[in-house]
Please model this.
Amino acid sequence: MSRSAPSEETARFHQVVSEGNLQALHAAIKGGADVDAPGHVGRTALMLAIKAKDLGKTKLLLQHGADPELTDDFNATALRHAVEADFADGVRLLLSLGVDRGHHPRYPLKKINRDFPLPVVPLPADLKGVISDAEWQKTLEDGQKAVREQGQNPTVQPMISDVQSLEVLRLFVDAGDDLNRAPREIQRELVGLKTGGELQVTLSDYRQHKTPEFGTQNPQRMDFPFWQDMIRTGGNAYSARVRFQDKAFASPGAVWCYDRFGTSLTPLPDGRFVQIAGEHEDHYDPDFTIYNDVVVHDGRGAFEIYGYPRDVFPPTDFHTATLCPDGIYIVGCLGYVDERRPGFTPVFRLKIDSWEIESVATSGEMPGWIFEHRARYEPERNVIAISGGQICIEDKDGDQQFLPNEQRFELDLNRFAWRRID
Model:
């Protein structure tokens, strides 16, 4: 989808970048080639060098003024191309230059034409009886509309969301990006877990603990073989049902699952990782559940599962979990519809010595019922800074609505008081 065909001169230069050696590239640049001229689908010479994973050419182009912040016709910068190619040396070099990591692009985003015919996709067998054919067709149409609108109204996307290896992931985390934006498969690899393999537990183990349950103590070890097996394999509730021939409508009730959205993964200084709560699937799915558990990973594949009473720590998702000197602060939540409290911001503290969770009473100007936000601890002032995300409000009819959070807030951990930052 090139916006205009590249000139013959640009095409020849880009061929040198893709197929020639370093000396040929140097000669072409010395001969006056435009290093930033867009070629096929708007790609620059720098993008082509990165796609080829050629560090020498990448450095040479940058030394001769190639702009690493330029975008192709799909709004991909040189750094995004390096991430997609899993070119760690290229990522490291570009990050050292301080380029945008998918947060604040230097140039305006381009509109993308994503109009396409609707694919013929039959209603999946596991959704029959849950939604009708008409509802499924509307879901597909809504998806197509969303993709089209996304192209016409493009938004920034943190590049850590597309990393493909631990080496590149660590580069972004060291640069200050949120580990929770990384793909789940890479997060699992980071904590020492593999993805795949069959469940090894017995049918009796499955039946005994297949249903999500709350702890009775604060905390309670949940050493259930089925739960442990689900974490080790990375399987979802549907795959467990298939394994044990457990049809959703013959056996009502959700199946415990560790394949979740809106969870948080927090690294500890000693190499452990703490994963908190999250939800599985959407509300219409028979296995939809919002969890309130904590899993502590040792970073080498071993872990411990802790449960909590519901009145101590309610089901929580799309929160933030920020490591501070006195524990991990869990801020915000989407939660179940009837448990949301517009205007209030839930805050909990997880003690990393005992894994006990306690509610934290706060005062001041709260963000409200916030979720999908960002949080950052600022040790100099002992505050947690909150930005972005969405806020749940109630309209005059008592219906819930979600609005983007356009304010910044701080929680002072000395006084546990909120304040809005103008």
User: Anything to note?
Assistant: The mean pLDDT is 92. The domain at 8-112 is CATH 1.25.40.20 (Serine Threonine Protein Phosphatase 5, Tetratricopeptide repeat). The longest strand covers residues 289-297.
